[in-house]
Fold each of these.
Amino acid sequence: MTGPSDVTALDDPVGESLRGHHAHLARRLGGAATYVPGVATFCAVPAEPDAAAWADLAKVLGPGEFADMFSCPAIPPPDWDPVFVLEGRQMIWARDSGPDPSHHEFDRDMVELGAEDVPEMLDLVERTRPGPFWPRTHELGTYLGIREDGALVAMVGERLRPPGWTEISAVCTAPEARGRGHAVRLLRAHIARIVARGERPFLHVAEANSGALALYERLGFETRKHVTFRGFRTP
Ligand SMILES: CC(C)(COP(=O)(O)OP(=O)(O)OC[C@H]1O[C@@H](n2cnc3c(N)ncnc32)[C@H](O)[C@@H]1OP(=O)(O)O)[C@@H](O)C(=O)NCCC(=O)NCCS
């Protein structure tokens, strides 16, 4: 059982989300699960998966499809082709440090983004590469953005939702709008919203992204563990 802010829920953030908050966005077979197309390519299998679990996942995805295993340490059978390996960190927001959510004011130029904003969100992601983002990813949670002269120049959103936790994701600012505090303001707004509903923020960052890492540490995030992200193609 996982309760509020139980850290064990963070060892399988994809599986916990697909069984819980995101069950309505899941495709599953046996113990294997993934998101519906267009939302995310993240997949989950039971801990210490057997051949049947991998076969179930292959069946859900279909042949020759991309399986983003996220931080799952289990390696699929040899006929699954490796697509990528990326070293990263899972960071959790440490209580009693970083911004005081009670001091947060919802900025006037901060807007909640929805389906009608997807083309601009995809364009911003294309220009900034914060991590995977698809046309329906915004359905995973709340996405907040900042506009300058009407154009979307920064956004931050919510992604995985294991019990008691919300992952902050898609942190990006257009190159021409950087250094104006947009990312910090959006991150603080999300932290405040997540804490206000009794949950705790966490996030993932690539080890090589030293700029983002330093930014998260300044905001009160601490490294919980080092993880390896892996993606494969089904046979
Ligand atoms: C990381 C990113 C979102 C920061 O956006 P931003 O709106 O410019 O950030 P802010 O203006 O709020 O900057 C906050 C602080 O971090 C610093 N900072 C921001 N990006 C940095 C970088 N790449 N390297 C070093 N420092 C950085 C800023 O100098 C600023 O410091 P200051 O407050 O002392 O002036 C932006 O650089 C970006 O879109 N990067 C590409 C996408 C990405 O890697 N996202 C993170 C995925 S985990």
Amino acid sequence: MRSSGPARFLCALALAAILVPSQSSAQQAIDERYTELIREFTTEEFFLTPLVDHLPASDVVPTPLEHLGYIAGTRDSLTYAEDVHDYMKAVAEASPRVTWTRIGVSEEGRDILLFLASDEATLESLDEHKALMQRLSDPRGVSEEEAARIISEVKPLYWATGAIHSSETGSPEMLMELIYRLAVDEGQFIRDIRENLIVMITPVVEPDGRNKVVDVHMAPRRNPDGTNPSRTVFWGQYVYHSNNRDGMALTLNLSRAITGTYLEYMPLVVHDLHESASYLYTSTGRGPYNAWLDPMTISEWNRLAHHEVRTLTGWGVPGVYTHDFYDGWTPNYMFWVAHLHNSIGRFYETQAARNAADYVLRTNQNRTWDRPNTPLREVVWSIRNNVNLQQSGLLVALNEVALNREEYLESFWTRSQRAVAKARTEGPAGYVLPADDRRPGQQARLLRLLQTHGFEVHRTDEAVTLDDRTYPAGSYVVRMDQPFSRGADMLLDRQFYSPDDPRPYDDVGWTFGALFDTETVRVDDVALLDVGMTLEEGPVRVAGGAVEADRGTTVAWAIHYAADNDLTRFRFAHEDLVLHAARESFEAGNRTFGPGSFILRSDENPADLGGMLEEAGQEYGFEAVALSDAPSVPTHEVALPRIAVMHTWQTTQNEGWLRIGLDEFGVPYDYISVHEVRDTPDLLDRWDVILFGPSVNSALQIVDGLGGSQPIPWEATDVTPNIGRQASSPDIRGGLGLEGVLNLQRFVEGGGTLITLTNSSRLPLHFGLAPGVSERQASDLWAPGGVFRARIPETESPLVWGFGEEIAVYFSQGQSPILNDGRPRPGTQVASEPDGSTTTRRSSRGGIDEDDVVQGHGRDWGQASMQAYRERQEEIGGGGGGGSWGGATPASRTLVRFHEDPMQLLYSGGLVNGRQLVSSPALVESRVGDGHIIMFSFNPFWRGNTLGSYAFVFNALLHHGHLRADQDEDEEDR
Ligand SMILES: [Zn+2]
């Protein structure tokens, strides 16, 4: 260690005297051994602060050193999730200032825990504080007097969450030490926190991934002479780094645990701990900020961040800064659970702890206005440095909120009030989901998701007419005069992202109604708020059951098909039933049944079919209609295919969202690697359908796979007991190989179905497996992840059964090839007309033809004087080419195409040079021999956001073997 000069030292002393108690005033013994080790593992004096340069001693509460045998941030030591939990439980056991509860269980069955630290009396009355925060979060029926009383009494909660990103290893170590300090430190600084706050700590949000990463990092230390894994292929069951992008769709157990816990405790701040920046980035983002968030929230971000930067910089710590990467736009991050509900969400990026070994860190950072205290050109970094900085920053933030508790609570109260007022100020009044939606199952699934977020859903008591449109009785309403209106608005509104804004950090468009293919009507008319409606108390479900025939013998039952995912779930859950799909629509029992509707004949099925369908109809939300005559319509049998989902060993990130979708709807599959395909000459013996989810961008990379001179194992051993669960191999090197390509070709030619999603479609394209289809370069296109309109030009193919003529799909230019089927593409001609680019205004809400709304303002501010001016102007309508067209060459059919009008192409997100994408094939089916290759350019399985598109793949599974629209007579079963 070295000192870096007396000036810095004096400055630090002066600040320390103000901000933290001196040793003498604390009058608390120091744990000498622990303190010695803190200093040993800290590489430089300036990576210590007065808050963490020592550890107070305790006679009753064990330190990490006493419990684990090492201190938090020990070189070469990382702690498994269970051991982190055991230590923190031991603290809770020993101290009345700490308690804990289980808030969830991971997909692999590990606990997700919440620890709470405060003073003894507060913890004893925890339920009262939770109830007061609930009261404050919903201003309806709370007077200003009551709010003032709550603000003076309640101890708000501040939630720190660690290790959602398993490769970012320091936070669980740090949080162990933090909870010890919160329990035992008698200094004024910590006492202020304890007496004014309830600190919530979830040390390991993703325990499955944590354990795998600890396995991989610790294996070489335990087994130095053996062959050890050198990379982490899986974290959790499904995805890795994107696990914190699940905050909107809530598909992962961890996301539901976090949201459920948030709604129960209503913490004022949610603070997520990450590692990627030098040395400590306390986030504010750089914008464009989310257009639905109360702008006050951004001010709070800055207040907290600048306080941390100022304090740590004052203590002489270099490289603490704010206002850096991340836009603050997309509400899918886990910590946005706070913003969806008027609290403050934030995150840190600390210099990475990696595998807990020391390393040389070099940086070359410009001295910008937001980062004048630059990190050093080079320095030795350690996991203890990481623990020091995270912990110091977090303690400073906790102390800031503790000392200014009432201000932060008043701000929360104001934001909650403004959220309720929103319906009548900035609008909209609400969203209506019409009772006659053509995909009621999708509608109900979306509404249940909103309910899981804590958003209220109402149902109209009678038919209502608004803006010249009549909505039937029983239509659903998401009111914007509810406390969490902003969160609901964020999910349901349209997004507009300008390319002139900083480069987006993630998706820029996500509108959930569109991606669920269910209609959500944004209603500005405040008359909506006075319509008679009733709050839905339980989860929204579609009514269903068996509709008996009036007369005659029931010879068959019919179930209308509108691509509802639950019908796929029903089919796979009832293998015993014999089902046929109607290849055309038909009329029966005074109803119209669309193509793909299920027909169940009484003579082919169990005797109690009616009773069984009554029960199943209620569970899956369909009506089975009894028919006294079998419909005279061509059909084929809906036989269950044998399905494989193929992965590459190179990345499981995006394909995990495919598996989570299949699992939700009970679709069984074998999970295989490219190696099994490479090594299985006769794939048709084992599978009917091979699903290849998103993988890597290059076909040759799929063929080559991972390289290297040493084997890379991914299997459970004594030193790596937590890996090899989803898939296992003694050596994951190598790819599909040319043998694998030939095996796939033989599989398809023999009658198999190969389905490729997004970039994996490059495999059949590159090897010419799909005749008539190629990739088209579109170098000037700018289309980051967003929602795009596409057309479904034909209805005959089983792949598009149940869909309408248009569909909104998720597309991201960086993730997918743009397909070319050789057909003319209307809408591509260069014109002086607007081309749909989102350059016309700043990033904001709405579509290209809509207006921005600034939250917290009246929606019509400034409009009256603009109106007179506007009246003299003529609006110029947009529009590009038009017309319709059929499929491509006979061997390939384009079943879904991006919209031909550049002004209509983008639904939500950002776009430049949309003419490069218009009319491009989005879903192509190629007939190869007796089989099919189905290529998606959009992603039908993206982060649980795209439930409206799942059924394109489900259709392929259900109608495997019958996919040709021009099916020969003799291939049909009647
Ligand atoms: Zn991270």
